[in-house]
Design goal:
Layout (H helix, E strand, L loop, with lengths): L1 E8 L3 E9 L4 E10 L3 E3 L2 E3 L2 H19 L3 E7 L5 E4 L19 H11 L1 H8 L8 H10 L10 E4 H10 L6 H4 L14 H6 L16 E4 L10 E3 L5 H7 L9 E5 L3 E8 L6 H6 L2 E4 L5 E8 L2 H12 L6 H9 L21 H11 L8 H27 L5 E5 L6 H11 L2 E4 L4 H14 L5 H11 L3 E3 L3 H21 L2
Parallel strand pairs: 1-6, 11-15, 15-16
Antiparallel strand pairs: 1-2, 2-3, 4-5, 7-8, 9-10, 11-12, 12-14, 13-14, 16-17
């Protein structure tokens, strides 16, 4: 038996997971789970790096205690775009800003467009336009009088930094680099011309390192001195997509669910059409060197924030309770755009949804079930729109959507998605990012011949659930979608 350790960090929590391979199947065990709680300093939000590292090290120590000499490697995946800066001695110059920080504004984006040209930027990078993309964060950093950029020697993205903290090796992994809007979509390398025009020092970056690269052995954790860190699809969605147990004879798409929902397809070449630019679709790196052609949508963030607001009032509500309450609520009574700008920052989400409904001339949801249903329907309505856009952009109608991640356990969510899209939804794995993370480790060590073999292995290791659309549900979603387009997309901008 071999054991592979996946460190999987999300925007709300982190996990250290052990995956045991018996020669036929993978089994997963969570060793440590810990909160990823932001720090607010001087009106800005930062990631608590010391706390994250301690949570990771605690999980690795637990791995040593339980699995000892069977541990073959460790891999790290996290959310995208955010970074740290190191000085020449390898010291952290500052805590990293959170992508939801207030410094990330449309005004900063407009400044960049004025310098580079918006269409020209898309032609170069093929990246969707979001206020928190690394290119805009670094442009803002370069403008600051007290910028750390002149003092910095290296820039590492969050999984790169965790790798560095574990084994001391500097590398910018390719899939996480692809989230920055600084990678040229044709050369698959840093676009130094863009950087120069924005006063972003190209010297800070290392040539993108592919998934499955053995970096070096872990330092400072007894029992892991001979265990290597292997680069994985270090953008968590890249690892999640690598876990899709798709059959080679199916024409499929994917939906990676979590705080964000990333819906897309695998493409072997960039799609830079006028329509792709207009819809703002992105090209991110896949573990096998292809593109993840996708749209980033608001995922379970709305639900997470609803539950956070209720918990702050001493009202802890389970998903089972919310599903039961939602079932009692009238469908499509409250129509919201989950991507509405006011929903993207932390705050009182029940009040934000209520204010949105009032501003758009709708009834105002009051109960937890009504608010939860409104949030879910808004999330899934965006899925529906994106799926139809993908069909138009690629010219291909796909017959199955693979849904991966924790939200696959929400039965209401899955049923809604199948009916809204009108196609079969295959759910699993729940631990998509961690399982894809492990596959990359196995490929890097030569324990698997390819990432396609990894899909087969995962398919043999999990139980999948399929949701088939119901005709009445499909019709109801089609009718509600017409109202949603008119109400939300036109009046709530």
């Amino acid at each position: 038996m071999k054991t592979y350790i996946a460190v999987d960090l999300g925007a709300g929590s982190g996990r250290v997971i052990a995956s045991c391979f018996d020669g036929e199947k993978l089994t997963m065990e969570q060793l440590n789970r810990f909160d990823n709680t932001p720090i607010e300093l001087n009106g800005h939000l930062f990631w608590n790096v010391p706390a994250l590292l301690e949570g990771i090290r605690a999980g690795l120590r637990a791995a040593v205690a339980k699995y000892g000499d069977t541990i073959a490697s460790v891999g790290v995946d996290t959310w995208g775009v955010d970074y740290v800066l190191l000085d020449k001695q390898g010291r952290l110059l500052s805590l990293p800003y959170i992508y939801r920080d207030c410094r990330n504004t449309t005004e900063q984006m407009d400044k960049v467009y004025n310098i580079l040209g918006k269409r020209e930027l898309y032609n170069a990078t093929g990246t969707q336009f979001m206020t928190f993309n690394t290119i805009f964060q670094l442009f803002t950093e370069a403008e600051q009088e007290d910028s750390f950029l002149p003092k910095a020697d290296k820039l590492l993205f969050m999984p790169d930094f965790i790798n560095y903290a574990l084994c001391g090796k500097i590398a910018n992994e390719a899939t996480i680099a692809s989230t920055t809007q600084l990678i040229n979509v044709n050369t698959r390398d840093w676009d130094t011309e863009l950087m120069a025009k924005l006063n972003i020092p190209a010297r800070l970056f290392s040539k993108p390192t592919p998934p499955g690269t053995v970096l070096g052995n872990i330092k400072g954790i007894p029992g892991l001195e001979n265990v290597p860190v292997v680069t994985v699809g270090s953008h968590d969605t890249a690892s999640a997509v690598a876990s899709v147990p798709a059959k080679s004879d199916t024409c499929w798409g994917y939906l990676a669910t979590g705080t964000w929902a990333l819906m897309g397809v695998i493409s072997d070449k960039p799609i830079l059409s006028n329509l792709s630019y207009e819809y703002s679709y992105t090209h991110e790196g896949a573990t096998d060197g292809q593109f993840r052609y996708l749209k980033n949508c608001t995922g379970m963030w709305l639900v997470q924030e609803l539950r956070r607001a209720w918990k702050a009032k001493g009202e802890e509500v389970s998903f089972d309770e919310l599903e039961a309450e939602a079932a009692k609520s009238e469908p499509f009574k409250y129509l919201i755009d989950a991507d509405y700008s006011e929903f993207q920052s932390p705050g009182n989400m029940p009040e934000k949804i209520q204010a949105y409904c009032k501003a758009t001339g709708q009834p105002v949801p009051q109960t937890k079930g009504e608010l939860y249903r409104a949030a879910l329907e808004g999330i899934v309505m965006r899925y529906r729109k994106v799926w139809k856009e993908l069909e138009a952009l690629t010219g291909v109608k796909r017959n199955v959507l693979h849904m991966i991640g924790g939200a696959t356990m929400d039965k209401t969510h899955c049923r809604m998605t199948a009916d809204a899209l009108g196609i079969d939804i295959t759910c699993g794995p729940v631990e998509g990012a961690s399982m894809g993370n492990v596959v990359a480790q196995m490929v890097g060590l030569g324990d698997l011949p390819s990432f396609d073999a990894g899909r087969d292995l995962i398919g043999a290791s999990i139980e999948k659930t399929t949701w088939t659309p119901e005709p009445a549900g499909v019709a109801a979603w089609a009718e509600a979608a017409e109202r949603w387009e008119k109400l939300c997309l036109n009046s709530a901008k």
